[in-house]
Design goal:
Order of helices and strands: EEEEEHEEEEEEEEHHHHEEHHEEEEH
Number of helices: 8
Largest sheet: 10 strands, antiparallel
Shape: globular
Distance between the termini: 29 Å
Strand content: 35-45%
Helix content: 25-40%
Radius of gyration: 18 Å
Number of strands: 19
Length: 304
Amino acid sequence: MKMFEVEVELGDQLEIGGLSVFPLTGTRETGPVYLNGPEAFEAGMIQVSELDPPEVPSMAIFNLALVPILLVEGEMLVGGDQNRTMNVTVLCPPQVRTVVPVSCVEAGRWGKRRVVSTSRKHAPGSLRAAKTANLEPRSDIASSRRSNQGLIWDEVERQSMAHDVFSATSALDDVQEEIEDRLASELEKIRTVPGQIGVICTIGEQVVGLDLFDKPSTLERYLRGIIAGHALDAPPQPSGAHPIRAIEHFLAQVNVTGRDIGRGVGLGEEILLRGKVAGIGLVYESSLLHLAAYPIPDDLVKAG
């Protein structure tokens, strides 16, 4: 099957509790050179700071490297005045400061500043889907890709209550730490397969999210965090479902849904999917670096 002109094949099902995980493999030509977020933090090539004065929906990224740095939608940035998650995928130009749009996932802390690091986690699929579906319309200012912050805080509270986890600062990270500890043995099953560039997650017969990257090395750095994020939305026990038809239907919808293409926050062109699928992606030098996509319920599609 083809997605955005990329030939992909669906791999074998892996169950993590009540979440089913399917690898997407594909052959990609050599693409642009960049560091992904985890690589950049490990190498000390990225500095993340608050603006002056600080703003909840924005953070400043200084790229110290000689190549761009890729930060992807849903990636968690822990520290600063509040923990945040990336609203869109951004390719930060080398050796300059880029202001990126983020959502707060820690409502109860402000002013007790900490050094910002990547948490190696991704926000839950339900939060990512709601955030992406409710992004503000594109404006002339690329960094204006703001989310519905109230909706995000509501989702963090829902996750906390659903998993019976108390956080003194209403931090999603506290919920994730608790649940990942509970699922540690299950998450150890996660392995990439040769040529894997993407992953589709399902709960029962329902697709809950897709992430597609330009190369296996980038997918490998994000895979565990993406799957663990989706696992927060899943029941603890496997459903026994075989959602291949649902996956094929969803991939077809991704290919035909409407696309709004415009200037990215950093380098490249941003792709916003609107319709029965909500999604955000980034193309640079003719390569699709990342695409995240989520199904939208029919009642919300008709309402929009």
